[in-house]
Design goal:
This protein has helices at 19-40, 44-67, 73-100, 105-128, 142-155, 167-181, 201-216, 218-253; strands at 136-138, 186-188. The chain is mainly α. A two-stranded antiparallel sheet has the order 1-2.
């Protein structure tokens, strides 16, 4: 078969997409969409679990793309659009249907603040991705914010509390999660963690213990982890500011 050439006689590279990472992104998008459908049907537990499944798939697609050297601009944009559905629209709709409907306008406005914040967070990340600190996120990442809302929906029923009793706290947490996404708080990204490098043997034991804890009570452990990570942003931001002050004082003193 003769190869295609452009006007300069150079071979034309056929455009296409890499299947594996984009297949994982599509699966994450499907999980987010399934969460929405489940919430509309009143199955909130399944909806929350679907959002966590989307988180796992979202974490895998980026890792797979980097490990297989199949990163593309198309993949970046597709991943962002999928994230907006799975970690923006889906958690907001799930928590609205679960507890915010009795608040009428206040309820859906709180959910909208979260959705708009997720969209702004993703847009800011895409425009600053080449200039950001690899070790930290600026603002709470949308999957972590989604884990906060989905974890609440999944964990709270175990305490025998009716969702209507939690309408106001749920609305507050939804708005706070949204505002944290568009804030300047610094969060550890863990992207500098090397999966291919050697680690101490104790690190393997810690990973096993984490899996054991999650297996004991997944909703409580995951919700607790999401709360701790969300609260770590202000602490990490203060730590970094103090570190910069010490460095400036050291330079001025020298």
């Amino acid at each position: 078969m003769p190869r295609e050439e452009n006007a300069s006689g150079e071979p034309v590279r056929r455009r296409g997409i890499y299947l594996l990472p984009n297949l994982l992104t599509t699966a994450a998008l499907f999980a987010g969409f399934f969460a929405i459908i489940s919430a509309m049907g009143g199955d909130y537990r399944t909806a929350a679990v679907a959002i966590f499944v989307a988180m796992i798939l979202d974490g895998l697609d980026g890792r797979v793309a980097r490990l297989t050297n199949t990163q593309t601009d198309f993949g970046v944009q597709f991943d962002s659009l999928a994230d907006l559905v799975s970690f923006g629209l889906a958690p907001a709709l799930v928590v609205h249907q679960w507890a915010l409907t009795d608040l009428d306008k206040v309820g859906w406005l709180a959910a909208f603040v979260y959705v708009a914040s997720a969209a702004l967070r993703l847009a800011r990340f895409n425009t600053q991705v080449a200039h950001t600190d690899r070790g930290h996120f600026q603002g709470l990442a949308s999957p972590a914010a989604a884990a906060l809302l989905a974890g609440m929906v999944w964990a709270i029923p175990a305490y025998g509390v009716e969702p209507v009793e939690l309408a106001v706290p749920a609305a507050v947490l939804t708005v706070v999660a949204g505002l944290f996404m568009v804030s300047n708080l610094r969060y550890r990204s863990f992207k500098d963690f090397d999966l291919r490098g050697r680690v101490p043997f104790v690190a393997t034991l810690v990973i096993v213990l984490v899996f054991v804890l999650i297996a004991l009570d997944p909703p409580q452990v995951l919700f607790g982890a999401a709360l701790i990570y969300a609260a770590s942003g202000p602490v990490e931001t203060l730590r970094l500011r103090r570190q910069r002050r010490r460095e400036r004082a050291r330079r001025s003193g020298s």
